[in-house]
Amino acid sequence: MLELVDIHKGYEGKPLLNGVSARVAAGETVCLLGPSGSGKSTLLRIIAGLETPEQGRVCWDGVDLAPIPVHRRSFGLVFQDYALFPHMDVARNVAFGLKMQKLAGAEIDLRVADALAMVNLSDFGSRRITDLSGGEQQRVALARALAPHPRLLMLDEPLGALDRNLRAQLMSELRRILHASGVPAIYVTHDQEEAFTLADRVLLLHDGKIVLSGKPERVWSDPGSVWAAQFLDAGNVVEGTIISIKPPYRVETPVGIFELGRDVVPVPVRDEVVPSPGKVGQAHSKGEKVNVLISRRGVLQGAQGNVSGVVVDVIFRQDGFKVTLANGLDFYLPDAPKVGEKINLIIPQAAIKCLS
To answer: Are 294 and 274 part of one and the same domain?
Structure first.
């Protein structure tokens, strides 16, 4: 098991990683998600041994890896630019790391065949790298990383150079390959679709720290903070004031009054406090200003809706219509209203969260 303990690293005199701690369990795929420049790739290089942290430890099964050089860590790396050797054919590219390990020829041939089969390139061994598509080259890079049987696989924005359709195709295939291999993996990306598709667990990196960790569905539905909600584009974020601290807990905003979810467990501190949904145990006072996340989905039109507005834009999506109102909110609806029409929307309690 990989464990990161209080990793610190600066860049040009400024902190880039500021106390990162995390674990990757056996067979688990963890996606490190964050904006460009947040330190994701630097953290991956520290794990690989290509960079040294200013503070903190990288451990495997409790053993500090600091004195262990890159080539002895038994970690596989896959980069966005593939880093393949154009003068070698596919099979020799995959075999490169195995030859560095000085394995016998028969063992090398067997592992190359197994790795190419895993990425569905069994008939490509004699192909030239320059004759392959971008997606095929990325699968060769993955096969090369898997062939030495690494104890950890690290992937740094591996699909970033591919077009949208190819990325979508490879995301599903990559998920299959990672699960089939059983190798624990850290996948670095700034793309939430990739993270949610591939990850068993998502780590959200911001200001040099892991600010959110959990299964993709939990991270999406309960981002916890304004920054996370906005980065993930998890819904509409509006400011509000708590006006009722007894069930139903209510928040007044410029776009309507909302009841908070029923799954909140009150904290008996005093009469005028209410815990924040998504932050059980954190109390708010009546009259306190809060930020509210309103989901775009699960919303229906109705005569007695708790949000109303004039439609200013309607965009077709494969899973419905994205409808934007004059008050700045947008929602996904199954049917398209007309631009200029005033509509009422029913926002269920489950679609409302308080943010820190």
So the answer is: yes
Question: Which secondary-structure segment (H or E) carries 213?
Answer: strand 209-214
The reported pTM is 0.86
Same domain? For 208 and 136 the reply is yes
Please tell me the predicted confidence (pLDDT) of residue 246.
79
**Counting beta carbons within 10 angstroms of the beta carbon of residue 244, is it exposed (0 to 12), middle (13 to 18) or buried (19 or more)?**
middle
- Please tell me whether residues 217 and 325 are part of one structural domain: no
Tokens for 79, please give them: 């980069």
Tens digit of each residue's pLDDT (9 = 90 or more) over 88-107: 999 999 999 999 899 999 99
pLDDT in tens, 241-280: 999 887 778 899 999 998 875 444 333 333 343 344 444 3
Q: Which letter does DSSP use for residue 260 in this model?
A: P
Token output for 343: 């509509």
Residue 248: per-residue pLDDT: 73
Domain boundary residue, one of 223, 253, 275: 223
Answer whether residue 203 shows pLDDT above 90. yes
Q: How many domains does the chain have?
A: 2
| DSSP character string of 137-158 | HHHHHHHHHHTT--SEEEEEST
Can you tell me the distance from the alpha carbon of 318 to that of 335, in angstroms, rounded to the nearest whole number?
12
The Cα 288–Cα 322 span in angstroms is 32
The whole domain housing 260 covers 231-355
Residue type, 126: S
Residues 199 and 126 in one domain: yes
Query: Which of these three, 223, 255, 271, is where a domain ends?
Result: 223
Could you tell me if 174 and 292 lie in one domain?
no
Q: Which sign, positive or negative, has the C-alpha torsion 135, 137, 142, 147?
A: positive
- How confident is the model at residue 13, as a pLDDT? 83
